C-alpha cells in the first residue's frame, strides 16, 4: 500500500508541475489567448442568448473559465501533498494567483486584470481541493476498514478447536495412563511357576 501511495504522490506532483507550467503560459501570454477565436465565441454566446439563456455573457463565460482552470490545481495540490488540508491548498492557489494578476497589470498591457479573476481562480482551487480531500478521506476510511478486518482474521488462533469438539486436554485426561494400568494389573505368583516346573 505504501508503494502505491508513493507512486500516486509522485505522479500527482509531476502532473501538478506540468499543469502549473501550462497555466503560467496561458496567464503570461502577451495577448488574450481567446483572441484567435473571439469572433466565433461571441457568435456562440449570441446564439445561446437568443435561445433564452440571457444570463450568459462573455464576462461570465470568462469567469467560469477561470474557475475551471484552477479546479485541477486544487485537485492535484491535495493529491501531491497528502498531509495538506484543502484550505491550505486553496490559500496556496490564492497566493499563486495574486502575483500573476499583478504581473499582467504591470507588464502585459493587452491583458485584462481584475479582482474577479483572483476570486474566480481561488473559487476553482477551493472546489477542486475540497472535492479531492473528501474523496481522499473516503478512500482512506475504506482502506482502514479493510485492513482492520484482515487483522481481525489474522488474530484468530489457527489451532482453535472446532465448535462442539471436545478439548484436547479433556480427551487426554479421560485417557488412562499406561503405567496406571500396569500398576493395577495383579502380579504373577512366583511359587506357581515353580510348582509347574516340578
Number of domains: 1
What structural class do the secondary elements suggest?
mainly alpha
Q: Could you describe the largest sheet, including whether it forms a barrel?
A: none
Number of helices: 8
- Are there runs of 5+ residues with pLDDT below 50, and where? 192-198
Radius of gyration, in Å, reads: 39 Å
Amino- and carboxy-terminal Cα gap: 89 Å
Order of helices and strands: HHHHHHHH
Helix content: over 70%
On the 0-100 scale, what is the average pLDDT?
Answer: 83
Strand percentage, roughly? under 5%
Number of strands: 0
Oligomeric state, counting identical vs distinct chains = single chain
Spatial shape: elongated
Describe the structure.
The chain has eight helices and no strands. It is an all-alpha fold. The protein has one domain (2-155). The termini are far apart. The model is unreliable at 192-198 (pLDDT under 50).
Short description:
The chain contains 8 helices and no strands.
Overview features:
198 residues; elongated; disordered C terminus
SSE topology sketch:
Layout: H1 2-27, H2 38-50, H3 58-80, H4 86-107, H5 115-155, H6 168-174, H7 178-184, H8 190-197
Amino acid at each position: 500500500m505504501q508503494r502505491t501511495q508513493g507512486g500516486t504522490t509522485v505522479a500527482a506532483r509531476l502532473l501538478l508541475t506540468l499543469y502549473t507550467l501550462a497555466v503560467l503560459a496561458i496567464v503570461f501570454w502577451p495577448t488574450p489567448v481567446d483572441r484567435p477565436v473571439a469572433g466565433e465565441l461571441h457568435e456562440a454566446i449570441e446564439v445561446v442568448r437568443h435561445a433564452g439563456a440571457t444570463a450568459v455573457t462573455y464576462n461570465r463565460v470568462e469567469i467560469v473559465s477561470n474557475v475551471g482552470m484552477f479546479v485541477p490545481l486544487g485537485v492535484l495540490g491535495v493529491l501531491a501533498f497528502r498531509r495538506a488540508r484543502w484550505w491550505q491548498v486553496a490559500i496556496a492557489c490564492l497566493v499563486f494567483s495574486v502575483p500573476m494578476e499583478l504581473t499582467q497589470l504591470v507588464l502585459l498591457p493587452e491583458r485584462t486584470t481584475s479582482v474577479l479573476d483572483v476570486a474566480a481562480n481561488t473559487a476553482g482551487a477551493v472546489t477542486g481541493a475540497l472535492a479531492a480531500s473528501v474523496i481522499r478521506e473516503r478512500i482512506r476510511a475504506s482502506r482502514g476498514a479493510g485492513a482492520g478486518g484482515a487483522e481481525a482474521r489474522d488474530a484468530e488462533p489457527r489451532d482453535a478447536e472446532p465448535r462442539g469438539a471436545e478439548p484436547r486436554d479433556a480427551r487426554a485426561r479421560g485417557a488412562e495412563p499406561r503405567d496406571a494400568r500396569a500398576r493395577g494389573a495383579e502380579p504373577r505368583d512366583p511359587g506357581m511357576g515353580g510348582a509347574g516346573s516340578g
